[in-house]
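Schema walk-through. Below, the input block comes first and the output block second. Nothing else is stored per chain. Lengths vary across the set, and this one has 385 residues.
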Amino acid sequence: MSLSSADKRPRSGRPEPGEYADYAAADIAAVPGDDAVEALARLEHETRTAFRSLVDTAESGFAYAPGKWTVKQVLGHLVDDERIFAYRLLCVARGEDAELPGFDENRYVAHSEFEGRRLEDILAEYGVVRAATLGLLRGLPPSAWLRRGRVNGYECSVRGLAFHIAGHELHHLRVLRERYRPPSRATAARLDEEQDPIALFREWRREATALGAPSLAGATCLSTVEADGTPHARFVDLKEVRDDGFAFCTSHASPKAAHIEANPRVALTFWWDHVKRQVRVSGRATRITEAEADAFFRRRGREAQLASWAFEQSALLPGDVSLADRLNTVHERFGSGEVPRPPHWGGYVVAPDRIEFLNFEASRAHGRVLYERHHGRWTVSELQP
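--- output ---
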């Protein structure tokens, strides 16, 4: 077994088929990495964030269909399930020969009265149980991870049971994101022309981030058009959402900047796959001020600052010079001193005149709401899928 980089203990390794119940295979396959302790420790923050983003939904007692659990019941079920599986893996790790019984999850939830408790109280209990599980797993001897026992008709290893806890939790987080999202304000907003769509965008972005946005959460597809009408699209990093629009940075010597200078009409597309939402923005791009460019540049990491000096964005690379050579040159130039903003580095802010919000539905009956600005005032329409 390899060692964990964090605390030098033996890693559990990923369980193989035959170390867990057949029905858990898909959930366990979704667990990243090869160590149960790291997976469960990493998952705790994601789970807390996901449930806290649904406080209003939780307190309303919402369930997405008759007979389905509420948000509080889902969380309580995760706590119960982890307790049971932690007990099972403890028994197997300690050499228990007797087969361990199953349990009726719906009966447990029905007798829990989770709805009478505050969501934050159940989250606190979840934290206590997770800490106990992690303490148990960190204290296991290396030989215990592969030890096997019988659980509810299946042969399971200790690491298989530990990975089951993480996979089961990931499964319910996916259901939360797909089925328990707070009712979109976009649907209600179509009845309220005073709604600010930029504020609504901020809310959607906040929800996407709370529910586990990807590492490049600011990525947006920028579409521009050449003077001859040739379209181009590429991803840029959204730097800021402002009352006057959406700001991003680039080299003013780049092709995209040339397109914008020739035709300032551009489009931005945001897609958050994990919450199945899309936002499309179109409007006019104008340069940000020198002071704003300076502020954005100071926020860049040092390596990114040096890269802004080293490379001519999208230009052909001469055959006698490597990227590393160019980067080494600017390293020598600036040494350990401050890296100023290159004169060609700046950005644009896109002042929107159209913003469309889309809630994706597997049935293709997508919810689409379009905001259009006319003479400084937003109007709202609902679009067919």
